[in-house]
What does this fold into?
Amino acid sequence: MAERPAASADKTVVDNQASIVGPASSASIESGSIESAVTPEQALLLFEAKRVWVYALGLAIASIGGFGLALGIGGDPLAQQLHLAALAATAIASFAYVATTRRPADYRRLKVTAFVYVGLIANASGYYYYGVFSAYAGIVTVSAYGFYSGGGKDTTRGAMVASVLGHGGLGAAQIAGWIEDRGLVQLDLPDGWKLAILIVFQLILVGAGAAGLYAYRTMQEVTAHDHAQRALAVRDVQLAEAHEAERAARGPGEGRYTGNTLGRFKIGAILGRGAMGEVYAAEDDRGGSCAVKVLAAHLLGNDDALKRFQREARVIGNLDVPNIVRMIEVSPASSPIPFLAMERLIGKDLGALIKERAVRDIGDVVPIVRAIAAGLDAAHDAGVIHRDLKPANLFAAIVDGNVTWKILDFGVSKHSDDATLTGAALIGTPGYMAPEQAKGEALDRRCDLYALAVVCYRLLTGRPAVVPGDAPAMIHEVVYRVPPQPSAIAKVSPQVEAVLAIGLAKSPDDRFATAGEFAVALAEAAANVLPEPIAERADEILRRAPWGSSPAAGSHPARRPAPRRCPFAIARDDADHVSACDGLTKTTRVRSFFLLCASAALC
It folds into this structure.
């Protein structure tokens, strides 16, 4: 295991906390400070902004389409003219929203309410034109539920009243003979039956509103649950820091198990501490020195933590390759203190080396990528997916005077045939996640290949592929935004850019099949001998998704919001990493339903 000074314990704790393990949330973490709160609801507004923008554009286009449809169908001239005027007003209001809300920072619910209410007027004119009892009313019901489940309480109540008055009031006035029924679809039934059907329809509208409000309250409960989870996370971190301070007070190099014997290993000075455990220098009674990783005392009763610890042992124990840390022994199941004995490494991780020198020449990067790719391919061939490849988990070990790159920390890895310990939870470090990983989809070896390409991008450009900030915003950027063009940031050749374009492709099918293929292509690009088919493949990927674009999130330019701040941010120096807690995934689904349903309203 890597030898790191005890003085760097705080950094080690943070590195382990940096991964998201569990359903993601809106925790906002900014490097090096403890900051003010951001709720999941606020963070999700960033996602709503883009979706509502697309919805408004779709509503405008649908209004134009409805305008043409009404012109073609004909019907009563007065009803047709009123509907055409309302459709025109809806198109204008929607286009105005599109024009004035191109950036997430411009998003305001008041603007959304404005063009939605104009759409309600168009709905009312549609009842008058198509008929109160036509199928047009069904479209309104579906879109109404979608709006109710995502809008604020006051806005929802106002929209519900407007919907009932628009449909029920018009229908009642027509039944009473106060307003002539000019609709294309009319019921040839006695007035009593018409009134009964109209009342049932209003009950359906009110029921849709009640169901929507219930869904909205559920979202608020999820938000409250998220706050509680985050508060618990704060206390866990504070407790870990208190343990760290207490152990540090004992004096440098001493740990809880220093001087004890675990199995055949005599435990010496502590080398580092992490959220999952402590790493000690140790002497093997069979001869030689090693490193022993011990599960943290406060996690001894945590079944999930123990399973991850055991899984790491199982994974490393089955991978005896030069570029993966070597396992020596695993504690027996009966041991009261779980431990892993591994080879002792002396050197620095890539994260520390990046701090010393941010940008590297392609000639320096190729050997690093080649070594890491060899380790990944060995793990992948054994069916193991790392899922959290990042600079902090890549170690430059000094072996016989030479540098050997090692892959560390298989604690959140999974076997391709196994179900993950966290089920459908989001696992990984946002800045190095593959898009399919950020979306919670099935993973294969190509997610690790994507992370390796992100590491390569970082080394060549000196900046992360995803700008650090809110965890939800980072995950959104991973899924939808292509990183800036490398050559616009640093000296990177077109051939190397082509290889990065393939490695960073949003679809795993567009990437190289193995990490080894990526490493070979990078070496060829460095030597300016990249095969033409690979260059053409990159050109096709960049044609669909150019550098710096957001092809999957709309055609308008994507801009990141100003960083939010959070009261439980873990102080750290590495801005690549953020952590998030429970709540985002569930809340996203509730809020997204509003947008999906609302898009069904075609005025």
Observations:
- The chain has a mean pLDDT of 75.
